[in-house]
Write a structure and sequence with these properties.
Blueprint lengths: L8 H8 L3 H19 L11 E2 L6 E2 L3 E11 L12 E11 L14 E2 L14 E4 L14 E10 L8 E13 L7 E15 L13
Parallel strand pairs: 1-9
Antiparallel strand pairs: 2-3, 3-4, 4-7, 5-8, 6-7, 8-9
């Protein structure tokens, strides 16, 4: 038997439901977990980006990357590239760690400019040029190391800062759900931030001065 004066859970619930204000209060209390769950409040927080220094070898999944520096130039020349644009370029060394070729432009989500840099295209590079030949990279072959310039078209950076923060996303070899049997390197929630020092654009990718 229940001791005199003891309040059971059933008694407390009956008290709350006795009047409509109490019923409204109870409904709101029951709704809070639903709203939090829908808004993602119960999901684990995404990990903060990890900072790495320039020239540090960094494993991003698809590549081993050595980020070096960045430049801004309106003289980039690679034949097919549009003329009359200002280009912001990140100088990096990349080594394809996978078993199939990777197109940095079409099949990879590793590299992104900071949001505050005006970008005429998407977050990933518009084009990638080899520094040894001055030509387009096309696809990075498995196990091969390249020194490249990752290029984005920009309408800003008239006065480039001494450093520019490049995002290097951790990627994973991921199966597509919309096309059976197709895989590509997709960005995960993990990423690296590297402050690239400003430098001059390499001569090998510049058009000749008249």
């Amino acid at each position: 038997m229940t001791e005199p004066g003891a309040i059971t859970a059933r008694t407390a619930l009956a008290f709350l439901l006795a009047t409509w204000p109490r019923r409204l209060l109870l409904s709101l209390l029951l709704l809070v977990p639903v709203v939090v769950a829908v808004s993602g409040g119960f999901r684990p927080a995404e990990p903060p980006p990890r900072e790495v220094p320039a020239e540090a070898v960094t494993d991003t999944g698809s590549y081993l990357v050595v980020p070096r520096a960045y430049f801004v130039s309106d003289r980039v020349d690679a034949g097919s590239l549009d003329e009359g644009f200002r280009w912001v370029g990140a100088l990096v060394q990349i080594t394809n760690q996978g078993t199939v070729p990777i197109s940095v432009v079409f099949e990879d989500q590793t590299f992104e400019l900071p949001d505050e840099v005006p970008n005429e295209d998407g977050p990933n590079p518009y084009e990638v040029l080899r520094l040894d030949t001055g030509t387009r990279l096309g696809s990075a072959q498995p196990g091969v190391t390249y020194e490249v310039a990752l290029l984005w078209r920009t309408s800003g950076l008239e006065d480039p800062p001494d450093e520019l923060t490049l995002t290097m996303n951790q990627t994973a070899w991921t199966r597509w759900t919309i096309e059976a049997g197709y895989y590509s390197w997709r960005a995960t929630a993990d990423s690296f931030l590297v402050d690239l020092p400003l430098t001059e654009a390499p001569d090998s990718i510049l058009e000749e001065e008249e």
